[in-house]
Amino acid sequence: MSTLRDKLLEMGEKAKDASLLLATGVKLRNPELFAEAVSTYGSWEGALAAMVLIVRDKDKEPTASAGASAEESALDRPRDPKADEPLLALTTTGEVAFFQAEQFPLTREPTSLPLAEPYGDLHSLRHHGDIGDIFVFTSKGNYYGVIGSMVPTGEELEGSRSVRTWLDLPNDEVIVDIFSRDQLAENQHRFVHITKAGKGKATSMSEYPQVIGKTGREAFLLKDDDLPIAVFTGSEWGSIFCASAMGQGIHFQADDIRTMGRKSVGVNVMKLQGEDDHIVSAFMVDDFAFLAVVTKDGFGKKVLFREFRKQGRGGSGMQVLRLNSQDQVVSVFPVDELTDLFLTTNQGRHFRYPAARLPEMGRAARGKRFFELLEEEEIIECTTLPCAGNLPELPPEQSEEGEGSEEGEGSEEVVVESV
Questions:
Q1: Digit-coded pLDDT (tens) for 157-206
Q2: Under 8 Å CB-to-CB from 171, ≥6 apart: which residues?
Q3: What is the mean pLDDT of residues 33-58?
């Protein structure tokens, strides 16, 4: 069966005049192709842009070797030396530990790393380079300085050594984010905080004394049951992107959030879509081309960031992904071809996967399933790590063709390795 890519290329090759590729004509002559292209790429203009990129890159694709697909052969990524550095981990109970990088290789199937019962499961990994002193932010809006030697390894976590115990945090206060001292020492102007309920605040770095000790300091004021979702540094001259669980994203100028004191609630950054909606990701915009979007049901895609024009803070934003019923966005983050994704599920499984293998689609597309989930399993977190090279080779008797199963409109083919 021909894929949408093949159909678009065939139409382009047969067109004797550029006017035959205009939306009005294609919609009349081939309404099914037009509808499929708009569903996948967000608009007919997006489909034409994709066709241009396909033709441009066609001659660059190396010949596939025996036993591997053309896509697999084309994906040749050099290993980043940073991929060998230790990784900081957060657990589902808000504990912190560090692990050696080789414990989390690229794999074709999800794996698990059981922890001692009091510490739950692995929730997320963060790359901070060589582990030194760190600063942790908590669910109550406080921050603490922790000497690096107090951060246990994964093996030590199973004993009595624990950052939460050392800080003597109450049961209802958990660690939600981590910064290294080196990150705070960088010449950044402000700390920015974005909360689950859509509040944002920026505070001068000078208001955060880099003191190591058990005495917590209030980083930001939270209302009701609100929680911090993202903490990052940056200047007022850049821009910020926020994404919500219901598939919206907003891109606005950083100085739309004025600098204010630590003991303030902040301002509205995004209008949410009802009680089930909340902010899932936020970050400073840097020099990148793509956003990766991942949902709890295992769908994902890459979207060109230039599709998100700047808007005023506090609006509803623009569509990031068209969701299937009951699905929600888990994470949205900038990626390039040398980015690895690290996904974790509510059943304690994790999966390191090359972001380059996510399909490129338009804003309105639903994406493709790239993670086969177990019964009642959901993705709960997705973060990025340095490139660990290429996926391990398939055994000669196996082939990726035909694996997986497609679910949901707007997805033309499945890209996941069978689990």
A1: 766 678 888 888 888 888 888 887 776 665 567 889 999 999 999 988 88
A2: none
A3: 73
Phi, psi of 59 (to 5 degrees): -75, -15
Can you tell me which residue has the tokens 């739950």?
120
Give Cα separations from 102 to 87, 91, 111, 153, 261 (angstroms). Answer: 10, 18, 13, 14, 42
Position 197 scores a pLDDT of 94
* Listed ranges 100-109, 149-158, 207-216, 337-346; the one with the highest mean pLDDT: 337-346
